[in-house]
Every structure is written in C-alpha cells, then in structure tokens.
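Recall from the previous lesson that a structure prediction takes nothing but the amino acid sequence as input. Here we apply that procedure to ATP-grasp domain-containing protein from Aspergillus tamarii. The sequence below is the only information supplied.
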Amino acid sequence: MEDSPVPLIPQRAKYKQVGDAARILTLELKFDAESGYELLKEEENPALWKHLQETAVEAFRSKKMYTNFMGCDIDMRIGQDGRAYGIEVDPLPVFFYPTGSQLEDTDVTYGFRAVVNTLITNYFLKHPSDREPRFIDLASIFDQLLTLSNSTRFQRLTSWGCGMTSS
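The prediction returns the following tokens.
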C-alpha cells in the first residue's frame, strides 16, 4: 500500500505436462484445464518463500510501482543457482478474475471489489485529510452496489441521477 509494498503469497505456475517436442509455452497450453496456479506454502521451503517475497519488494521499489496506486504483478524464475530473477513487472495486477475462474488468483479474492478497495485505500493513504464522512459514506454505497446484480445496480444508479445509459 502506498510507498510500502505488501507482497502477497507467492504462486507457482503449473502447466500441463507435455513431451519435449511441445515444451514451448503456447496460449493453448497456458490456458489448458490442466494448467493453472497454486499458492506456495511457506512451510514447504521457508528460505525460498522469504527470498521470493524479498525479490518482489526489490522489484516493486526498483520499478517505482508505488507511483501507480495499484501495485504490480511480478513474474519470476528460479535459476540453477537457486536465486529468483524478476523477468517481468506488470504495473497493474492482471489477476482479479471471478471466484472459480480457471485464472483466479487465489491470494487476491473478491474480483472487482478488490481493485476498487485497493485504489480507495491507496488514495486515502496519500490524502489522509480527504477522509471525511462523505467519502466513507460513498465507499459504503459502492460496497453495497458491488453486491447487487448488474440490472439492480443500473436501476439504483439511474434512480440517483448518475446519468448512466443502458448498454
């Protein structure tokens, strides 16, 4: 949050096992039903788990991800020497898929609400004087809206004069 990164639980990518002739990662293989992600358990390898967390924090700071209010997603590989190497730092997390989705990020739940709450939290960390009752009320309204179906949400917003049109 804000300038202080909070590394999430590292994940391990699991891909469908294929022969040597097809070992290139294709979209079909990446999105195959047998492919996916699993959380790394700290107790499996505490030193590796800590090293991945530290590498994530280092990547966050070196790429100045604190400037985007959202965090980042860091892809790493473990080299033959046992060190983690950051190979990609995405300025926005790609995962906020619905619960049960094949691509669900199991350490970031609640879909769209998680994105909104992250943005709200980071905004108020940067602007603490803006945290007035009217903003708290607004956040509460958005939390309520996110639990409604799309049609009910649309009806509520239009009844409040938000000027939304149906699409």
